Amino acid sequence: MQPIKIMPCLDMKEGRVVKGVHFVELRDAGDPVEHAQFYQKEGADELAMLDIAATLENRATRLEWVRNVSHVISIPLTVGGGISSVEDARLVIEAGADKISMNSAAVKNPDLVAECAGEFGSERITVAVDARRNPDMPSGFELVVSGGTKPVGQDAIAWARRCQDLGAGVILPTSMDGDGTLAGYDLEFTLAISDAVDVPVVASGGAGTLEHFYQAVVQAGAQVLLAASVFHFRTFTISQVKEYLRQKGLTVA
Q: Which one, of 6, 10, 4, 80, lies nearest residue 46 by Cα?
């Protein structure tokens, strides 16, 4: 088993880090550059930065945000939000991202996953899979896009499997039912994704206790643990999370 990695996430809007519940009720959570520097110093293994309004505002990722953050860290940076073409991906990578994450654009045009994987390598391509429970879907989870606002009538687990086949190197599932709630990762959803794919899975959405991080690994098969609220508002330090996981017998990066 690969060592478990910790990945803080900067949800960006209007140049600031924000955090909400179920992707709404956003509140300010600070300056992205200060957070990035702090998290690297704290021992973060990777950093995610998501331009959460890009798709809804029908625009590309703000490249200056990518440049500002990438300049102050050396750990891998995954950037998502508004990447809807190979050229968009290239500009984000040139601005300093190590990996790109796509979501709505990939659902709209699945070939984009294959094109970006062919151009930049699968290891640089993350597909974010947002879902909510729907008993009419074979897996019980329906894919949603546009920041969790639009259900698309597709089974989320089948879509994750297809993304891997298209060349995605990482799958990042987020349950709309859990995002920002601090009630724990959606273990059922994360496990369903982990069972469906062979690439690394990033647990996302809802971490609120140290136990939640452990559960995401042992009960849901996640290899990377993404969190925002508990780190932004200093509920836990990254070193606290890592030490807890070590004490529970896990190997961490």
A: 6
Residue (of 138, 219, 137, 207) closest to 175 by Cα position: 207
HSE, CB side, 13 Å, CA atoms: give it for residue 125: 29
Q: Is 88 a catalytic residue?
A: no
Collapsed DSSP state (helix, strand, coil) of residue 151: strand
Instruction: Let me know if 110 is exposed, middle or buried by CB neighbors in 10 A (0-12, 13-18, 19+).
Output: middle
Known catalytic residue at 11: yes
Residue 127: count other Cβ atoms within 10 Å of its Cβ. 32
Tokens (6 digits) for 107: 């659902």
pTM above 0.70, yes or no: yes
The two tokens of residue 248 are: 């529970």
State pLDDT tens for residues 72-107.
999 999 999 989 999 999 999 999 999 999 999 999
> pLDDT class for 117, splitting at 50, 70, 90?
very high
Whole-angstrom distance, CA of residue 124 vs CA of residue 214: 26
> What is the overall mean pLDDT for the chain?
92
Cβ(227)–Cβ(199) below 8 Å = no
At which residue do the structure tokens 């698309």 appear? Answer: 152
Among candidate residues 51, 130, 179, 186, the one labeled active-site is 130
Domains of the chain: 5-247 (3.20.20.70)
